[in-house]
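> forwarded from #structure-qc
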């Protein structure tokens, strides 16, 4: 708490002084906790777009400058030099690991990738054609029934064990969701593979023939995981914190985050990119659809361009663009109609004054959608992979919330616009 204060004057001339809370980097915040007591009024901020719901040391975003930091480390450096599991350690512990710490952490995650065999049978209760997000949501929520030995949120050791279990088992749960939808046998994880390699192995291996993981594909997927590991107080992260504020177990909190992420306005953006490209069809149709996107009268919108938070350029897009092009080159996919259309659309967006002036640059969803498509991952798995990557951030945020001495159960207020108090009338009098 700093020395700065904000003076408000009420309608009758009364003065209300509110303290200003200083952050370590970025904007400060007006502390309105005592506003209702002092004035009898709430603040009104639909979507909490101007409200800090918590204090956090995990992730910082500057949308105007196009900056993203995990624990003070620029996403550009982490993407170039780090791995997803190293980023997981960073998000959970606040510092980059030493060599022995990283080795130990990677070993723990590898040793927890298996799920209870009864969980495999749990899938059989689902319809074979169920959406993989529905299956993943149900299975993650059910984990507390299988791992109830360590769900005391007041016990730091239990929280650590649960964090490790969730990060380790999410790829297995996700891959099983896909295999079940395809009617294929589940593939067990292999401790000889790294995190991204293991997921690809569980997705695409089958008993009939050997499967070799493409290192370029694994590298591109690991980058997607890094770039999606956390993103400050978005809808799903806020949902995890709100659910967790009641003291519920970590599996229920993460399941709540998955449910929030499932919404098309949140986690489904990269899927929407591919559906848009499928609608466009070929490179020759691009000009027509670009003109439609420019027209205010046409409801058609280009997906994967611009960002609600980043008013400049999405820093994650710069990083994933290179990986996307490397992967398409290695797989020989640039000659396919969908990818040709995507690359032409990318060229136009980076050169056309309409897009440049409005800063409608390709964002991370544009390139991640192309990467996942090139890897042969079906559209209905895109959001599942997003959830898998974001689990580390959710757990870190949940942990931080529980350690915050100022933490209380979430209880937003409202501006009531319904009927005023009125008497009940008997049925015959109405």
């Amino acid at each position: 708490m700093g020395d700065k204060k904000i003076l408000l004057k009420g309608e009758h001339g009364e003065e209300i002084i509110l303290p200003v809370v200083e952050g370590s980097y970025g904007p400060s915040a007006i502390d309105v906790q005592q506003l209702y007591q002092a004035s009898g009024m709430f603040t009104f901020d639909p979507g909490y777009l101007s409200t800090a719901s918590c204090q956090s040391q995990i992730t910082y975003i500057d949308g105007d400058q196009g900056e993203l930091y995990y624990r003070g480390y620029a996403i550009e450096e982490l993407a170039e030099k780090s791995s997803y599991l190293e980023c997981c350690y960073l998000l959970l512990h606040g510092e980059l690991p030493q060599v022995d710490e990283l080795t130990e952490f990677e070993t723990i995650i590898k040793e927890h990738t298996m799920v209870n065999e009864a969980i495999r049978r749990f899938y059989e209760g689902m319809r074979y054609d169920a959406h993989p997000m529905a299956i993943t949501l149900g299975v993650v929520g059910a984990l507390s029934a299988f791992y109830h030995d360590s769900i005391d949120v007041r016990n730091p050791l239990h929280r650590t064990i649960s964090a490790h279990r969730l990060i380790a088992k999410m790829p297995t749960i996700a891959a099983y969701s896909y295999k079940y939808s395809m009617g294929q046998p589940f593939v067990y994880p292999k401790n000889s593979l790294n995190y991204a390699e293991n997921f690809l192995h569980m997705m695409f291996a089958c008993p009939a023939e050997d499967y070799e993981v493409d290192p370029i594909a694994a590298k591109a997927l690991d980058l997607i995981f890094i770039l999606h590991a956390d993103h400050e107080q978005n809808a799903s992260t806020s949902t995890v914190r709100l659910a967790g504020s009641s003291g519920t177990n970590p599996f229920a909190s993460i399941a709540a985050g998955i449910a929030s992420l499932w919404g098309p306005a949140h986690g489904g953006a990269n899927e929407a990119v591919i559906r848009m490209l499928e609608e466009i069809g070929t490179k020759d149709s691009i000009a027509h659809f670009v003109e439609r996107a420019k027209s205010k009268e046409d409801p058609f919108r280009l997906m994967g361009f611009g960002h609600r938070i980043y008013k400049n350029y999405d820093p994650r897009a710069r990083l994933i663009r290179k990986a996307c092009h490397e992967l398409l080159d290695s797989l020989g996919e640039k000659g396919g109609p969908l990818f040709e259309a995507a690359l032409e659309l990318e060229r136009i967006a980076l050169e056309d004054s309409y897009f440049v002036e409005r800063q409608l640059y390709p964002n991370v969803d544009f390139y991640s959608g192309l990467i996942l498509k090139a890897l042969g991952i079906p559209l209905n798995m895109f959001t599942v992979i997003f959830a898998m990557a974001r689990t580390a951030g959710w757990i870190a945020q949940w942990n931080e919330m529980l350690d915050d001495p100022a933490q209380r159960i979430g209880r937003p207020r409202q501006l009531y616009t319904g009927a005023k108090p009125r008497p009940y009338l008997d049925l015959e009098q109405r």
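QC bot note: The chain has 18 helices and six strands. The chain has a mean pLDDT of 91.
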